[in-house]
Specification:
Elements: H1 7-44, E1 50-51, E2 54-55, H2 68-92, H3 100-123, H4 127-151, H5 158-179, H6 186-193, H7 197-204, H8 209-229, H9 233-259, H10 264-287, H11 292-312, H12 320-332, H13 341-375, H14 394-414, H15 422-444, H16 448-462, H17 485-510, H18 514-534, H19 537-561, H20 566-573, H21 575-587, H22 593-611, H23 615-633, H24 639-660, H25 667-687, H26 693-696, H27 698-713, H28 719-738, H29 741-769, H30 774-788, H31 790-806
Length: 808
């Protein structure tokens, strides 16, 4: 062992450390003695001993894990449980070894002692011990009742005896708990026992579900009285739980019996049961304001279920739910009574739940009924179809939706302002009312012409609220403050959605007849355009776009009516993007201009799609589209995007035209276009050095390079690939020299593809001559090398990308 310090110096340091430890130990021993003294003084009284450095309150020592009272309770509870188990074992097992006198004497004496001892214990202040002995006494009374039935009343019906015994025990326990009010167990036990007598009595009498439900409802009434009158929280909690369980069972039974009753006589008793439950819940709501919203809601639901069941027996099939809804509407009038706010809230919740349930029931048949006319259209312009029959429940479903819409409109005047979100209600009321009106012809079984006319009228009417459209952003603080602008906005958006959905549906329905198609599309276009003129903000843009859509449909219908094939119909549809381009140029900075142009461009894409099967027409459509895009590019704000689009369309038109004409020498047609295009691009670059090379030279170069590349790939001679490769090399070098991105990318791409085309046969031949294991091995080596230099290759790729991005 090597010493860092000399031995003498290290020994001196060790002696100093030991001296400090001895001093610290002495200090800790003094502190320990003082703490022991402080604890002893605290045990005799609240004194404040003085410490070595002055008066100091002693720190609280760590106590035992369980306090003496809790340990006492555990021991007492265990003792009571063991005694109860012993009593049960004695009653069940050893009962037969004793006579009737002995049995009565033993159980009676033990029970009397167990019930009397808690009074003595309470006088001595032993509450926990008294609680345990009292619980033992209560358990012994149950055993007494059992023993009495086994010994002397064996012939008595078990359920009837259990009902009487439960009632007697509940009364005895309640009286015992009232006499010894300090005990916490007897009164809650009496509440639990009180749940059994009436239901057990009903079962003993062999009563049906209705009588049993009345018994449980009477039990719920008793629980309600106890919950309202009792003071201990444990008793109130058990009574509330018992009332909820027994009352809920009664109401569910009454609801089931009323819903399955087919006559008024059968529905009368469950209706009375539900009304009694409603009265009980309403009384509880009046006496207990804290629970009023819940109990009042239960009362409202029960009352509606009772009256709706009686009314439903007199209504035809499929009209039962509207009967319940009518009762809920009548209940809505009750919220105008001067009742407490909690009760009004509960009744409003009940009405809302019933309306929501009725609406959920009505939506599927109503939607099926609204779509039924579309099922009648078998083919386009096949003639006036025979209307299909709606589903059986459609009239009732539409009646439900109309009723809910009316209630939503009237509810803000009936209910307090804090109870309902008025914006949502107004929008929902409008949507339901419009849908009901739109689907009404189906429920009325109207013929085709009237159905189309009515649905077209409702669709146009849905667009009317859009005239007061969303306020534009420019309105700012000047927007109207009277009324509720939020509600108007919600109705406007809802009306806009309904109008567009209805327009699509009626337009599809009108496809069955030619005259209906033109009439519907014309009315939709005029209505959308007229409302777009007076609307503002986003609504105007949506309606303007919808007008372009309907106009596109009219153009397509006109082409079909003229007997034009699909590819020529594309030429007709080009009138739409041309018109929208002119209109947008007129509107200029108006916010509507861009949506109109975009919708017109979509119509142009449809025209191109229609012309695809016929290449000559496709070339013409592409060229015409290029002209429209070039005209749009004259506007400075549209020049970048429209200019590129025009170049692409012109080049594509050239390629398609050459392919359609089966030209074997495309350069003869493309070079006359390329040369002037490059000249124009050169002039453009001289006037505007910042102009992109893609705009100046891209269309001209692509017009020749792309067709020549396609021709070279199908050419078996060497001259065309050689000339094309030479030209591509020259373009690439010029692009690298002048730092022009378009020339470098186009020339390099074409040069690479030409070289690949020329080398492909030799590569195939070489690969065929190599062993089959060599290509995978070479590929593996390549991947290894690339992976090893991945970071460097990534940097090179980024450097190349940056270099290209800096080019014009």
């Amino acid at each position: 062992m090597e010493n860092v310090l000399p031995p003498a110096e290290e020994l001196r340091l060790l002696d100093g450390e030991l001296a400090q430890l001895d001093a610290r130990r002495a200090q800790l021993l003094v502190r320990r003695a003082w703490l022991v003294q402080a604890l002893q003084a605290a045990a005799h009284g609240p004194t404040r001993p003085a410490g070595p450095t002055g008066p100091v309150w002693p720190s609280r020592p760590a106590g035992p894990e369980t306090s003496p009272p809790s340990a006492q309770n555990v021991l007492l509870a265990l003792g009571g449980i063991l005694l109860t188990i012993a009593a049960i074992a004695f009653t069940v097992v050893s009962w037969g070894h004793m006579g009737i006198g002995g049995r009565s004497l033993v159980l009676g004496a033990v029970t009397a002692a167990a019930l009397a001892v808690p009074a003595l214990l309470l006088r001595r202040g032993l509450a926990s011990t008294a609680e345990s002995v009292a619980a033992l006494g209560l358990a012994l009374t149950v055993l007494d009742a059992y023993a009495l039935h086994r010994a002397a009343l064996t012939e008595t019906d078990a359920l009837g005896y259990a009902a009487v015994a439960a009632a007697v025990l509940a009364a005895v326990w309640a009286g015992y708990g009232s006499v010894l009010g300090t005990l916490r167990t007897p009164l809650p036990a009496a509440v639990v026992a009180a749940q059994l007598p009436l239901p057990l009595w009903a079962l003993a009498e062999g009563a049906g579900p209705g009588a049993t439900a009345w018994a449980t409802l009477a039990t719920a009434a008793i629980d309600t009285v106890i919950a309202l009158a009792a003071k201990p929280s444990a008793v109130r909690g058990l009574a509330v739980a018992g009332a909820a369980a027994t009352g809920g069972w009664s109401l569910l039974t009454g609801l089931y019996l009323s819903a399955t009753a087919h006559t008024a006589a059968l529905a009368l008793e469950p209706a009375l049961l539900l009304l009694a439950g409603a009265g009980l819940a309403l009384g509880a709501a009046w006496r207990a304001p804290s629970a009023a919203p819940v109990t009042a809601a239960v009362a409202g639901l029960s009352a509606v279920a009772a009256t709706g069941a009686l009314l439903g027996t007199a209504l035809p099939e499929h009209w039962t739910v509207p009967g319940y809804l009518l009762c809920a509407v009548l209940l809505l009038a009750a919220v105008r009574t001067p009742a407490p706010r909690g009760i009004l809230t509960g009744l409003g919740v009940a009405v809302a739940v019933i309306h929501a349930g009725a609406l959920v029931w009505a939506l599927p048949p109503a939607a099926a009924g609204a779509l039924t006319p579309l099922a009648s259209v078998t083919d386009v312009w096949s003639g006036t179809p025979a209307m299909a029959s709606p589903p059986p429940g459609t009239p009732a479903a539409l009646a439900v939706m109309a009723t809910v819409a009316a209630v939503l409109l009237a509810a803000p005047r009936l209910l307090p302002a804090w109870a309902l979100p008025r914006t949502t209600m107004s929008a929902a009321a409008f949507a339901l009312a419009w849908f009901t009106a739109f689907a009404a012809p189906t429920a009325l079984d109207l013929p085709y012409a009237l159905t189309v006319a009515w649905q077209l009228l409702t669709t146009a009417g849905a667009l009317a609220p859009a005239a007061a459209a969303l306020p534009s952003r420019a309105a700012g603080p000047a927007a109207p403050t009277a009324g509720t602008p939020g509600r108007a906005v919600g109705v406007t958006v809802t009306a806009l959605v309904c109008g567009q959905a209805g327009g699509v549906a009626v337009a599809l329905l009108a496809l069955a007849a030619q005259a209906a198609t033109f009439a519907v599309l014309g009315v939709l276009a005029v209505a959308s355009g007229a409302v777009a003129v007076v609307a503002r903000g986003a609504v105007r843009a949506v309606l303007a776009s919808a007008t372009v859509v309907w106009a596109t449909g009219l153009a397509g219908a006109a082409a079909a009516a003229a007997g034009l094939p699909g590819h020529r119909a594309g030429l007709v549809l080009l009138a739409v993007p041309a018109a929208t381009a002119l209109l947008a140029a007129r509107l200029r900075s108006n916010p509507v201009a861009l949506p109109v142009e975009v919708t017109g461009a979509a119509a142009g894409l449809v025209a191109i799609g229609l012309a695809v099967p016929h290449p000559p027409t496709l070339a013409l459509v592409l060229a015409a589209s290029g002209v429209i895009a070039a005209g749009t590019a004259l506007r400075p704000e549209r020049r970048p995007l429209a200019g590129y689009a025009a170049g692409v369309l012109f080049v594509a038109a050239t390629w398609v035209r050459l392919a359609a004409s089966e030209v074997s020498l495309p350069e003869a047609y493309s070079l006359p276009v390329t040369v002037p295009a490059l000249a124009v691009g050169l002039l453009r670059r001289r006037r505007d050095p910042e102009a992109s090379s893609w705009t100046a030279y891209g269309p001209g170069l692509a017009a020749t390079l792309a067709p020549s590349l396609f021709a070279a790939w199908g050419d078996s001679h060497w001259l065309r690939p050689l000339l094309l490769g030479t030209a591509a090399l020259a373009v690439t070098l010029v692009g690298a020299r002048r730092r022009l991105q378009a020339l470098l990318v186009l020339g390099g791409t074409v040069l690479s593809l030409v070289a690949l085309h020329e080398l492909a046969p030799y590569v195939v031949q070489a690969v065929g001559a190599l062993p089959r294991w060599l290509p995978p091995a070479l590929a593996g080596l390549l991947l290894l090398s690339v992976g090893a230099t991945y970071e460097q290759r990534l940097r090179d790729a980024r450097r190349l990308r940056d270099t290209l991005s800096r080019m014009r």
